[in-house]
Design a protein that fits this description.
single chain; 214 residues; mainly alpha; two-stranded parallel sheet; 43% helix; globular; disordered C terminus
Length: 214
């Protein structure tokens, strides 16, 4: 409760402090590709409860199905020039401070996913839904889109079991590094989470991906 209260107050302050960035980004999105400023999509929150995720729109209007995984490569032709910039700097995620104010998200936690994915989850994988989804998280700072979904999920379940004030501070610091340097796979963290899952959870091979990390 203390964490959520702190994040709500902090999000309100950050919304005020970053309001110039909000206005400039909104203007840039609209002027370079006329259309909605925000991207809205129904995602699965804590315990699988639906909520409307907010992001600055970084792609041209299209008919692409909304049940796709979260990340789209920056080289995707549908990503606008300004979209590539705000994605690289994570500015497109700023509207999620509103989701935090609503109590739908946290600063730190598993990334909110689409329902088409959780329908395929094993019991182990569904454990990532036990806490509020986050704007950033353990999987995001240890590889993010550079590692397979199955690897991200075991990192997120590891966080569910190990979350603490110190771990959250570590994630916030690593998030700044990701914004500056970009995503980089952390094979040690992935292996640590994998070994923990095998030792402490009743998992089977379907919970893990044998494909190499890209």
């Amino acid at each position: 409760m203390l964490k959520q209260f702190t994040e709500v107050i902090g999000s309100a302050v950050l919304l005020v402090l970053t309001s110039p960035v909000f206005l400039l980004t909104a203007a840039a999105v609209w002027l370079t590709d006329l259309g909605p400023v925000f991207y809205r999509q129904t995602r699965a929150g804590i315990h699988g409860r639906p909520f409307e995720l907010l992001k600055f729109r970084s792609m041209r209007l299209n008919d692409r199905p909304l049940d796709r995984p979260e990340e789209t490569a920056g080289a995707d032709p549908l990503v606008t020039p300004i979209g590539r910039i705000i994605r690289r700097l994570k500015i497109d995620e700023l509207p999620q401070l509103i989701n935090v104010l609503r109590g739908e998200m946290s600063w730190i936690g598993p990334r909110p996913t689409v329902f088409a994915q959780i329908e395929k989850y094993s019991h182990f994988q569904r454990r990532r839904l036990e806490i509020l989804p986050g704007m950033t998280g353990w999987a995001q700072v240890n590889g993010g889109a550079e590692i397979p979904w199955s690897e991200r999920i075991i990192l997120e379940v590891w966080y569910v079991d190990h979350r603490s004030f110190l771990v959250d501070i570590q994630i916030l610091c690593k998030t700044i590094a990701v914004i500056i340097r970009g995503h980089k796979p952390n094979l040690q963290a992935v292996e640590q989470a994998r070994c923990y899952a095998i030792q402490h959870h009743d998992v089977d091979k379907s919970d893990f991906c044998n494909a190499p990390i890209e």
